[in-house]
Amino acid sequence: MPSPPLHPHAFAATPARDSDALESKIGKFWLNRIGILAILIGVSYFIKYAFDNGWIGPSGKITLGVLAGIGLVLWSERFRSKGYAAFSYSLKAVGIGTLYLSLWGAFQVYHLVPSAVAFIAMVVVTASTITLALSQDAEILAAFAMIGGFSTPVLLSTGQNHEVVLFSYAALLDLAILGTVTFKPWRRLLVGSFIGTAILYVGWFAEYYSKNQRPTTVFFTIFLGGIFAAIPLLTPLTKSRWGGKFSITLMLLPLCNAAGLFLALFAMYENQRVSLTWYALALAAAYLVLSNQFRRRAGSDAEMVKLINLLHIAIAIAFITIVVPLKLSAHWITIGWLVESAVLLFVAFRAQTNFLRYFAGATLALGIARLLFYDNFQVHTLIFNARFATYLVAVAILGGIVAAGERHATTGEIPFVRAAGVGLNALALLALTLEASDYFDRQLAISYQSHAPGAYGTVQQIEFARNFSYSAIWLAYGAGLMLFGFWKRSEFVRWQALVLIAFTIGKVFVYDVSALQQGYRIVSFMALGAVLMAISYIYHRDWLKLSAPASGDSAAEPSA
After folding, report:
1. pLDDT, position 240
2. Radius of gyration from C-alpha coordinates of the chain
C-alpha cells in the first residue's frame, strides 16, 4: 500500500531549530576562533622557519614584530565593532605584548636602538593603551597598560643606577593611573599600581642604594607615598565607585602605604633614631591633616568619609606611638602596640567595620606575646616598675574590651569578650605573682651576698615566705574575683574564681603541706578554709538570689 505523501513541514519541530542554532554557533564562533588560532600558529611557524634559515635579519625581525603588534591591535577593532568585545581585547593583549617584546628585543637582544628610544617607544605604547581603555571604557586594557608600564624599566634595564629617571617615571605612571581612576571606577588598578611601585622600589633599593644617595631617595620615597596617600582626596568617595560602605581598597591602601613609607625611612635611618623620630612625628601630622580634609568632603558618602577620617586618625596615632619606643627603652614598643590596638578597636567600633578589628586583634596579640615572651625587665622596686606598668596597660585594654562587650557585643562576639576577660585575669594574676617572685629573689640575693653566720636559715625562711606568698596572692585574687562575680551576677566570672580557688586548693594540699614551715602551713590552711567557708556561706544563704537569676543576668554574662 503506497504511503501518503509527507507534509513539507512535518519535521520542522523544536529539535531541528535547536540543531540549527548549534550549527550556526559552531560556524560563526568556534570555526572563526579556530581559524584565527590556526592562522596565528601558521604565521608563527613561517616566521620561525624564516629566522632559522636567515631569510630575515635582526632589523627585519623587529620590524615584523612591531608591524604584527600594530596589525593585531587594529584588527581587534574590527571584532569590537561587530560586538565581540572580549575577543577583541584578547587580540589587543597579544598585540600590545608583541609591541613590548619587540621593543625590548630591539634594545636588549639586537642593540638596534638606544635605551632612550626604546623607553620613549614603550611609553607611547603605554599611553596609547590607556587612551584606548578610556575611549572604550575597558578596564582590562588599562590593566594591560599598567602591567606594560611597570615592566618597561625591567625590560630596558642596563644594569646601571638611574634613580632619578626610574622614580620619576614610576611617579608619572602612578599619577596617570590615579587620573584614570578619578574618571573611571577601576579601583583595582590602584592596588596594581601600588604593588608595581613597591616592586620597582625594593628591587632598586636592594641593588643600588647607598648612603650618599639618601636625600634623593628620601624625596622620592615621600613623593611616591604622597601620591597614594592622596587617593581618597582625589577620587570620588561614593558607594557606587568603591563597591559599598566598606572598601578593602580604601582601607588597605592607606595602611600599607603608611607602613611601607615608614619601613623605607627606617631602612635608611636605622641607626639614627632622632631623625626617625622627627619623620614619625611629621607623618603623624600629615595624616592628621589628611583626616581633617576628609571631614570637609562635599558630595561624598558621609559614612565612607567618616570611616576614612577615623582610619587616618588611627594611622596618625600609630606613628605617635612609634615615637615613644624610638626615644625610650624597648618595653615601650609593647606599650605602643597595646595602645595602637586600643585605638584601632575604638575606630573599628565607631566605624562598624570588622576589617580594622582584625588588625586590632593582631596588634593586641603581638603586644601581649611580646610582653610575655620577649620583654626582659630589670626590676628593682616593688609594684612601681616598668613591668608592672606594662601589665597594667594590657589589663586596662582587656578590661575596656570586656566593658564595651557588656553593652555592645553581639552573640558571635561574646566568646571573644569572654576570652578577653580570662586574659585580663591571667595577666593580672601573673603580674602580681612576678612581683612577689622578684621581691623574694632580691631578698635571696642579699642573703647569699652577706656570707653571715646562719645565712642558710635565712634563705630557708625566705623560700618559705615566697611559696606562701603565691598561695596568698592566688587565694586573695580568687576570693576577690568571686565577690566581683556575685556583685555583677556573672556565672562566667564565678567559674573563673572557682577554677583559680581549685588550683590553689591543690597547691595547698599537695605542695604547701610538705614544703612550708609549720607556721606558714597553719596560716595557709586556715586562710584557705576561711575563704572557702565564707564562699560556701554566701551560696547557702543565696543573698544575691542566684537560684532565681534576674532578667539582667544574660546581659551581664560577658563581664570579666
Report:
1. 57
2. 36
